[in-house]
Design goal:
By secondary structure, chain A is mainly α. Chain A has five helices and no strands. Chain B contains nine helices and no strands. In chain B, helix 6 crosses helix 9. The chains are: A mainly alpha (about 90), B mainly alpha (about 210). Chains A and B meet through helix 1, helix 2, helix 4 and helix 5 of A and helix 2, helix 3, helix 6, helix 7 and helix 9 of B.
Chain lengths: ~90, ~210
């Protein structure tokens, strides 16, 4: 029989979310994190806000830009001798 | 993400054959992000532009020596970080980005305003929520307006946090790639990312809460 995991508080929970999502919380901390989340509606809401935040960040459109001298760089690149012309 | 290495291999082969279209595609893919990363490291727009130029020249020079021990983009951004710290040294600004990042990570900054939690002396539930965070509506974050709130929130972050959240969440890099490219520790990377996400969440919560009747 394993002893019940020590509890964490909500204040501790909010500091562990990124480590939890990255899968790097040590086993016992992960158990505490998950069991807290099961019992605590506030932290469940917080975790889902956090996930939604990450989704919103991920859906931000990528910026593109190119240097003014792109043509010149490309010429420099294309005329650089090849290390192994057989490739 | 799973095709990153495959994509790298065919791109690399094209680069070794000196296909200029492959090079142009590479530049277009990374240039904007490189400017943002260099700016965060240097805090000087024209110095950032110069450092990115120097990096592209170094990429041209070194492309055949790239051995594929990291991803291509990690290799490019490592060159960028190296060039940026060389630039800081030349300008007599001796604090490299990695040191600023560790200082930022070491500062005590709670993820959530401490007043949202009951005090240590609370008899029943010390350090539990005073009132639970609200559920955000499922589709609230799709609105174009919210997108600009998120962008504004990222812009306001301190340099280290802004670079890490940009690479991890906006660009989808792995933690290991970010550490390698920026020469910061895995722990610092995670602290900076967590602070940054927490701050963006807080701003979104204020916005979504404030938008309610």
């Amino acid at each position: 029989m394993t002893p019940p995991p020590l509890q964490i508080t909500c204040k501790e929970f909010v500091e562990l979310v990124t480590a939890y999502l990255d899968g790097v919380l040590p086993g016992h901390d992960r158990v505490r994190f998950e069991s807290h989340s099961e019992r605590c509606p506030g932290c469940r809401a917080y975790l889902s806000q956090f996930r939604q935040t990450i989704e919103a960040l991920q859906s931000a459109p990528a910026e593109t830009a190119e240097p003014e001298n792109l043509g010149e760089l490309a010429r420099k690149f294309a005329t650089k001798p090849r290390a192994n012309p057989a490739l | 993400m799973d095709s990153v290495l495959d994509g790298d291999e065919s791109l690399l082969a094209a680069l070794r054959r000196r296909e200029d279209t492959a090079f142009v595609a590479l530049v277009r893919r990374h240039h904007s992000l490189m400017l943002r990363v260099a700016y965060a490291q240097l805090n000087d727009k024209s110095a950032a532009e110069e450092v990115v130029q120097e990096t592209w020249l170094a990429v041209i020079k070194g492309i055949d020596a790239f051995e594929g021990r990291s991803t291509l983009r990690t290799w490019i951004f490592r060159i960028l970080t190296y060039q940026a710290s060389a630039r800081l040294q030349r300008d007599g600004r001796l604090i490299p980005f990695s040191a600023l990042a560790s200082a930022d990570a070491a500062a005590a900054e709670p993820s959530v305003d401490p007043s949202r939690f009951l005090s240590r002396d609370d008899r029943r539930l010390p350090f539990y929520w005073v009132s639970d965070p609200m559920q955000w509506p499922e589709d609230a974050l799709l609105a174009a307006e919210v997108r600009s709130v998120v962008e504004g929130a990222v812009q306001q972050l301190p340099d280290g946090q802004r670079v890490v959240i940009t690479l991890r969440d906006l660009e989808g890099w792995d933690p290991g790639e970010v550490c390698e490219a920026l020469e910061i520790s895995e722990g610092n990377q995670r602290v900076l990312l967590h602070r940054a996400r927490s701050r963006v969440r807080e701003i979104l919560d204020e916005y979504l809460g404030g938008a309610r009747p």
